[in-house]
Amino acid sequence: MAKNIESGKRKHNIYSILGIIGDILFYPIIIMCLLCCFAIYADKQSGKVPSIFGVSMVSIKSGSMTNSGFKVKDIVFLGKTSAGELRAGDIIGFYYYYDSACDGAKSELQAELTLIQSYDRDTKEKTPFDSSTYKTLRAEERTGDRKTVDEINARADRLYFHRIVNVFIKSDGTLFYETQGDGTPGNPTNGGPETNYICEDYVVGKYIYTAPFIRGFFSFVATPTGMIALVVAPLAILTLCILFSIIEQISRILVEKRVLRRLIRFDSDESIKANIGLDMELADKVWFYATSEPADRREVREFLWGYLKNGKEKEVDRYQDIARVSQEFDDDPVAYWTYFIDSTKRKRIKKKINKAWQDWSIEQERQKMVVNPLKRKKKVDDKEASAESEVVETNPAEPESVQEEKPKEKKTKSKKSKGSSNSDTQDKK
What we know:
The chain is an alpha+beta fold. Helices cover about 55% and strands about 10% of the residues. Among the domains are: about 80-210, no CATH class; about 280-365, no CATH class.
């Protein structure tokens, strides 16, 4: 064997490694991006606040929450929460909307509202939640026909991001919130609370705590530069990884074709580096072994199926069966072909092996038709040569003197024949 074939040991080059990395990272990212785009598009079409798995991502438009570490253009996450779970001190995203058809002004609503919890912005302490009042009034059937958050969003009303300072409940069980920004360094009160109470129906979600560097990261991603640096560039790199993988596969296929056509040896460095013996399709393996030179078949068997010896018990048994039928190939080729056809479950591979068997049989018959006439011609030539040698042996060479006298005898005979012919013509005259 010209080269040392490492059966069953796959050799990875830089292209295949980059391709594997691309497969691991590229497809999950693409799937997640598609799901996010689809969810956002569906929400936009139905007039809802865009959200993915109940989480909305919004941008801060003002500096009213600067004292709490929120900067303008920061990206924050809001989780959908039922109104009964919101408490004083929570930071919420809401639409600053006043529905005059259902609610009066703040001064008018004050008489109908009951305070059930409050939050002190200076001490950052809050009073206990009045659950008994909440349960009593919340049990009543709510009245009114307020607009929903999605209807307000369709009108493109501005989304606010403030802290709840007071929680109220109306006689019909509707919750209202008094909100206020935490302010800026030069304006800690932020001008006081909003002029209107915020109805529970217009709350988008509760702020989900996110570390400042994560908020800054998403803010950077939202910019054109961030999109290029963190979205376009990685996708371009992953695309290159996929292209490298494709190039590696094409290169391997070309090497395999050269091996099958016998343009290069199966045990060449190029073939081993491309893992041809490991990756070749079963039908091609069966055909390649059958058409190999008898002197190379042992090495070819190790090249094609040697990796099975290092596998599990079933693979070892399969290798032993293949070794048995391949060793008996010259004496019983039918057993060789039928073994692979019977042991293969995939119909497409069965068809290819059957086709390879037919082609191999036709080629064997053609070779016999070419070889047999040549053998017959050789036998005839041998017979003629042997006959000539027998003639030479039965007529040994005569002396030179005798060979010189024979031409003279022939000349005298020819002269006599001429004289007799002349005498015959004179008699006739």
